[in-house]
Amino acid sequence: MKKLQKPSYFAHEVMQMFIMSDGSMRYMSKNVMGLSMYIDQWVISSDLSLKPNYDTPRLRLTPSFVQPKLKVLPIIKRNGFNGKFHGIAPQILLCELLNDNVAETLLKCNQIDLLYYHIRNNPIKKDGKIWGALKICIRNNYIVTDAKLWVDYLELLEYYWKDLKSAKYVCPIDLRKAHDKLMSRKQKEIMKMTFEENKKQIGKNQKHYLKAKQHFFGLIFSEKNISISVIESVKEFLEEGCYHNHCVFTNEYYKKQNSLILSAKVDGIPTETIQLSLENFEVLQSRGRGNKASKHNKQILSIMKRNLHQVQNRMKAA
Question: SS3 helix, strand, coil % of the chain, rounded to 5?
Fold first, then answer.
């Protein structure tokens, strides 16, 4: 653009993806800057060429816009696709619909948040408790609007030996209220334990947590009055869970091998707890008091996104 002149536009095609009817995919793309920290810093002068068929973050890029006029194979429509991608990258959704009947079922039953949860490296197994409870939801026309909260709630139900095949439990009218009630009950039971028992439990788990995550310790991302740091002890998980009244300690998030848990503070006050996937480096959830997003949620997620390369560097150095 130049002053007093009409703007001119140009576009470069950087990728082509070819999806087979069995859900497999090959792709062509332009080259990228090899030493760049960005996955989409294309070498515009290069040509499209067939790339090795291995998983790369570039295959998970989500476009800002999708051409509204689409032509898809009949098998795609048969498997539940109605032209909407629900914020999921088209190439990922279409591949899932072709080779994963769980994803197909979730889409057909309009369980969109569970579909998103399933695709983001949290696969729902057909022989697991989530699938069994989901079938009860489908029979009762119950839509899960917060998949992560609902899955956490199922873990609490299982902990208290509740019937996961009963609509009374797995289809609560107020999911958050039902989740928080059980979580509060479990927290109180934990806090009633003697100090020595807590000390033994924390000390035992701390050794495993230290071994699994110590290479991330010391990571701090700060901007203005917001700081985000890795939780470095099981005791901090307990404190974080009690402060926010959520289940980061009661559901033993310190044992999740493929997640990194961080604490976001505003002016030194705990504000949100962040769960980051160590498989695809996406923020799975960022929750504050009462398991809700705080008013600083967008800023916190923005800071996390800009500093993901630091987490990746720690993994490479480990």
Answer: 45, 15, 40
